[in-house]
Design brief:
heterodimer, A: alpha/beta, Rossmann fold, six-stranded mixed β-sheet, four-stranded antiparallel β-sheet, 10 strands, about 25% strand, B: mainly alpha, ABC transporter involved in vitamin B12 uptake, BtuC, two-stranded antiparallel sheet, 2 strands
Chain lengths: ~240, ~300
């Protein structure tokens, strides 16, 4: 196993509020890591730094052996990084097929064949020509994952993929994430509040609080960690 | 399919206009065809990529003045002036795009407005070259107005077809993506700046074609086509017709020019009445005339 992404002491400051404070993390290829922590812990900001939404004030980000710290999001996507957002981020006025086609076009090869592949993979064959705005919330979440995968990434960040999704759709998304890791050979980082989901899927859990990492380990280690229990898991059945 | 038949029939009917022998109708019809191209070209970046340019008069008049100066003052042949005028519009749109595309929404509108008014200032002041307020007269048309009608229709239809293929291509799809959700396009691996720049150049170049035709029709150029109000024309026409439909700007232009022509017969305040029309369309008829028609047909 080798490291695909490494952050070196990345820091992000929003006019005095340190959202991410000297975070150094590395992610192994084809692993599923969950990033958890209370609201405002800096999880989404960390994802935004990794994917190029913001530039860090300090620190370095190395992706696949390349320093990507100053690169814009589209360049990072071209290098093989992809993501979904906390709040559904799709093209509401375009059809399902068009939504998947736009990211595919940035890869440029065999777009027609690939569209069919992804439409089948995500079970959208009945809804190809439906406007994305007319899909159920769960389907929109799945469509966004499909769009993120269509860029053929090596690594994908899923920011709260289960938020606002009903239990049946949750199971579907969960199966999908595992399948993606196995079939598409992806490295996955998932930010999630649903502890049931986190402990079912993650091989490694990183806990953040106030911009810092307070724990990092296997699900069993995190369950037993006193500090984590204190700040985060208090009252949560795990 | 039925829509295409109707469109073809309408275009075929308009081909009979020169035979009516009515000079004014002929002139007005050519003007409408040219302004339709202007509005369709403008709508590439407005309707498809979601950028409001308030400076398209710069590309229109850049081409018009380019042609006029090269043909009248430098004595170049008309076809050379025609091509050179369009090339000037292309260069202008590349420059303006390069300098202003980092900005969005109202900022982009204001910057394009500023560039076009700068050009208006130059046109007004640089009398030796541009003729100042008087403009430049004596531009040849190269053919009788009877044939110029068919020439204009052919050029406009060919350009419209190329623009149609352009906006319906994969490139056009990414432009629509930018309009819908720019962040998602960037996270899909596309440089939105590059797409917007190319779209602006295509838009500006075809606007230049309209400008060159206009100069040949009028046989004079005056600063009025550099003025910001001339940039507002395609904006208003497109809002009336509907920016989300390819033919929206064309329908809007038709309504705009005819309304202007009819209303001025009764009152000098045609802009007031047109303003009321635009406000009510924007407030009550989402998607303009074409948007309303589309919804009517869907309901059936």
């Amino acid at each position: 196993m080798s490291v695909i992404l490494e952050t070196k002491e990345v820091t992000k400051n929003f006019s005095g509020f340190i959202a991410v404070n000297k975070v150094s993390l590395s992610f192994e290829r084809r692993s599923i890591t969950a990033l958890i922590g209370p609201n405002g812990a800096g999880k989404t900001t960390f994802v935004n730094l990794c994917t190029g939404m913001f530039r860090p004030d300090r620190g370095k980000i190395i992706f696949d052996g390349k320093d990507v710290t100053g690169l814009p999001p589209e360049k990072r996507v071209q290098l093989g990084m992809s993501r979904t957002f906390q709040i559904v981020n799709i093209f509401p006025g375009l059809t399902v097929e068009q939504n998947i086609k736009i990211p595919l076009l940035s890869r440029g090869k065999e777009v027609k064949k690939e569209i069919n592949h992804f439409i089948d993979l995500f079970n959208f064959s009945q809804k190809r020509d439906v406007l994305a705005s007319e899909l159920s919330h769960g389907d929109q979440k799945i469509l966004e994952i499909a769009m993120a995968i269509s860029t053929r990434p090596k690594m994908i960040f899923l920011d709260e993929p289960m938020a606002g999704v009903n239990p049946a759709e949750r199971t579907r998304i969960l199966d999908l994430i595992r399948e993606l890791r196995d079939r598409e050979k992806l490295t996955i980082v998932i930010v999630e509040h649903d502890m049931d989901v986190v402990f079912r899927i993650a091989e490694r859990i990183v806990v953040m609080n106030r911009g810092k990492i307070i724990a990092d380990g296997t699900p069993d280690e995190i369950r037993a960690n006193e500090v984590v229990k204190e700040v985060y898991l208090k009252g949560v059945e795990v | 399919m039925r829509n295409k038949t109707i469109l073809a029939a309408v275009i075929a009917l308009t081909l009979l206009i020169p035979f009516t022998g009515n000079k004014y109708l002929l002139y007005l019809s050519i003007k409408i065809w040219i302004l339709i191209l202007y509005a369709i070209a403008f709508n590439i970046i407005f309707g498809y990529s979601g950028l409001l340019s308030f400076g398209h008069a710069l590309f229109f008049s850049g081409s018009a003045y380019g042609l006029a100066i090269l043909v009248v003052k430098s004595g170049l042949p008309l076809p050379v002036g025609f091509i050179a005028g369009i090339a000037i519009a292309a260069v202008f749109s590349a420059a303006v795009g390069f300098l202003s595309l980092r900005h969005k929404e109202i900022h982009f509108a204001m910057i394009t407005l500023a560039f076009s008014m700068m050009f208006w200032g130059i046109v007004m002041k640089w009398r030796d070259v541009t003729g100042g307020e008087d403009g430049i007269a004596g531009i040849p048309r190269g053919m009788p107005i009877f044939w110029f009608y068919y020439f204009s229709v052919a050029v406009v239809l060919i350009c419209a077809y190329i623009i149609y293929r352009f906006v319906k291509s994969d490139f056009g799809l990414v432009l629509e993506g930018i309009r819908e959700n720019e962040v998602r396009v960037r996270f899909s691996g596309h440089s939105t700046l590059k797409y917007r720049l190319y779209a602006t150049i295509v838009s500006g170049t075809f606007t230049g074609v309209a400008g060159a035709l206009w100069t040949m029709l009028d046989r004079t150029v005056t600063p009025s086509i550099s003025h910001w109000s001339f940039s507002a024309m395609p904006v208003i026409a497109t809002l009336i017709g509907g920016p989300q439909n390819f033919l929206g700007p064309a329908i809007g232009t038709l309504i705009y020019v005819i309304a202007q022509d009819v209303i001025t017969k009764y009152t000098l305040y045609w802009q007031f009445i047109l303003g009321m029309v635009v406000v009510s369309v924007v407030l009550f008829f989402r998607g303009g005339v074409m948007g309303v028609l589309e919804r009517l047909f869907e309901r059936r």
